[in-house]
Write a structure and sequence with these properties.
The complex is a heterodimer. Chain A is α/β, with parallel strands linked by helices. Chain A contains eleven helices and 13 strands. Chain A has two domains: about 240 residues, Rossmann fold; about 60 residues, no CATH class. The relative contact order of chain A is 0.12. Chain B has a two-stranded antiparallel sheet with strand order 1-2. Chain B is globular, with a radius of gyration of 20 Å. The chains are: A alpha/beta, B mainly alpha. At the A-B interface, helix 2, helix 3, strand 5 and helix 4 of A face helix 1, helix 2 and helix 12 of B.
């Protein structure tokens, strides 16, 4: 892994606004004496991302993931702390920062709503001052990976969500940025398109060496793409480490369900926690013990059915938040 | 060269929107044609009974009214339709992308407006030539008047741009600006003399109007064109225009600076 290219150093973001009181009378009172509200969206968030790494930034809704991404991409100005992207403070020189990064916010498009996507691409080519030859080459590659050519003459308002986001992914990469921010890029997509986008993201890190920060609620996506995760809850980092360590630390362990052939004598193997309806349930926390058990069972002729379960990432995440809530109570 | 290409690409967006939608293009042309014809008919009919009113001859009044109709097209297509105003992007949260490009939002907004204006000017110039050929608009009163017409028209467009941009940028804080926009649109039509030339209004109305930014956008250039304001008297009007440009430009600069620092993205 390369050097640190993205750094969040004690990032904090506070939003100030006014809250409306309920009802007509409340609205009138709010007009005369507005109620000031302060929201701490992100508080003391620190982590780093190395060149070529794909980091999944996870957390429940309203945890502060998107706000963190917007500070790192230079859109928002931090209330405290510092963001560094390729050694630069992103919001201080946004035009220069824009050349180093690409971004897709899944629920919003950067394409011009009433122009064919190809026109939007050409617009971005000129805005980013991309050479014509390089643009052609890149567009061809992106069109191949994302299968854009069948709909890129349409306007975004005529596209399906999946088509629109694929065009947005291409738009974000036309200027060949080494760093990409993806904020819920697969939200609302069907399984086929989701898989295509996942493969595209995997290709960008594995083959193109791009550094990616990805936020998502899709745990299958996380386990498929990320080796490292940062969990944010209520604006604070609650976990920063590898996915494997997360599962080891917060997971409830492995389970193996076995059905033996009728009349077979089940062997005495370690980890057996119960039997029900001809099914034997083994469980444990040591992955080596699970591997040993599976080897033993696969060597036998009287095993009719065998199911091995790891930890469901959704459950692991829930366990992290539960444990954190207990410790802060 | 790439700088120019970038500017031209951004500037031509609205024109591209219209050209790519022939229905919209034809509709805009038909609307302008009908508007001009009805305006011409109305003002000729009004003047059938009197040879002059409020010091304006029939030719002056008709030329003024038709030019005022053309002026409506000068600002180019409505960017609201293209969904590319600050208000729309702030409301939907897609304003984030304006901060993720190597062109500052301020420059992008300015280039878009300049492009809209150039496109509108092309429409207005072609229609002006047709109207002149058909005799719907008389010639400028003098060469000096024509030159000052062009200059004050240009400065007037700067005034309007800064004013409207300020209202658009205010959406970073207000989120919506429909009310303010409606007031400005009415005021800019009324006080600019787009509905009725200001010469027809009472003195107190004209006194108020002379200190507002709207008059300089339409009434002053058209009055110079038809000869109602002599070129020698244009100095005061030019000064008022320049003062408004400087004030509004400073206010807009300040608004952009604050918006860039305090941007909030709606919807997480």
């Amino acid at each position: 892994m390369g050097e640190l290219v993205i750094e969040a150093l004690g990032l904090r973001k506070v939003f100030r606004g006014t809250a409306r009181r309920p009802g007509f009378g409340g609205a009138l009172r709010s007009l005369v004496a507005p109620e000031r509200v302060t929201t701490v969206a992100v508080d003391d968030v620190s982590f780093g991302v190395r060149a070529g790494e794909l980091l999944a930034l996870l957390g429940p809704n309203g945890a502060g993931k998107s706000t963190t991404i917007k500070m790192l991409s230079g859109v928002l100005v931090p209330s405290a702390g510092r963001a560094l992207v390729a050694g630069h403070v992103p919001h201080l020189d946004r035009p220069a920062n824009a050349r180093r990064i690409g971004a897709v916010f899944g629920q919003r498009t950067q394409l011009w709503w009433d122009l064919p996507a190809l026109e939007s691409f050409a617009m971005l080519r000129d805005i980013f001052k991309v050479e014509e030859a390089a643009y052609r080459l890149r567009l061809d590659e992106l069109a191949g990976l994302l299968e854009l050519s069948s709909f890129w003459k349409q306007r975004p308002r005529q596209m399906s969500l999946g088509q629109r986001v694929r065009c947005d992914l291409a738009a974000a990469l036309l200027h060949d940025p080494p760093i990409i921010f993806l904020d819920e890029p697969t939200i609302g997509m069907d399984a086929v398109v989701k898989e295509q986008v996942r493969e595209f993201i995997r290709y960008q890190t594995a083959e193109r060496g791009r550094t990616i920060i990805l936020t998502t609620h899709d745990m299958a996506e996380v386990s498929r793409l990320a080796s490292r995760v940062v969990l944010i809850n209520e604006g604070r980092v609650v976990y920063d480490g590898s996915l494997a360590d997360l599962q080891k630390e917060y997971g409830s362990g492995w389970k193996v369900r076995v059905t033996f052939a009728h009349g077979a004598v089940p062997p005495a193997l370690p980890g057996l926690v119960g039997t029900a309806g001809g099914e034997h349930l083994f469980a444990g926390t040591d992955p080596a013990a699970q591997r040993h058990l599976l080897r033993e069972l696969l060597d036998r002729d009287d095993v009719e059915d065998l199911q091995a379960h790891g930890d469901d990432l959704e459950d692991v995440m829930a366990a992290v938040y539960r444990k954190r809530a207990e410790t802060t109570r | 060269m790439t700088e120019l290409r970038q500017a031209a690409r951004i500037a031509r967006t609205s024109a591209l929107y219209e050209v790519l939608q022939p229905g919209r293009l034809a509709g805009a042309g038909a609307q302008l044609g009908v508007q001009i014809f009805l305006t011409w008919c109305l003002w000729r009919a009004l003047y059938d009974a009197v040879p002059a009113s409020s010091g304006l001859s029939r030719e002056q009044a008709v030329s003024y009214a038709v030019l005022a109709t053309l002026y409506g097209r000068l600002r180019g297509p409505d960017r609201d339709v293209a969904g590319d105003t600050v208000r729309q992007h702030v409301w939907s949260g897609s304003i984030v992308y304006w901060y993720l490009r190597p062109v500052t939002p301020r420059r992008y907004h300015w280039l878009r407006a300049a492009g809209d204006q150039a496109y509108g000017l092309a429409w207005a110039a072609v229609t002006y030539a047709v109207c002149r050929a058909l005799g719907l608009i008389g010639p400028p009163a003098s060469a000096g008047g024509a030159a000052l017409f062009g200059l004050t028209l240009l400065l007037g467009q700067f005034v309007l741009y800064y004013l409207l941009a300020l209202v658009d940028v205010a959406c970073f804080w207000t989120l919506r600006n429909f009310g303010v926009l409606a007031i400005i649109r009415l005021a800019s039509s009324l006080f600019a003399g787009a509905i009725v030339p200001l010469w027809f209004f009472p003195g107190w109305f004209r006194a108020i109007s002379s200190w507002l930014p709207f008059e300089s956008s339409l009434h002053v250039p058209l009055s110079l064109y038809i000869g109602r304001i002599a070129p020698a008297d244009a100095g005061r009007y030019l000064l008022v225009q320049v003062v408004w440009i400087v004030l509004l430009a400073l206010a807009l600069r300040l608004a952009w600076r604050r918006a860039d620092q305090q941007i909030v993205v709606q919807g997480g």
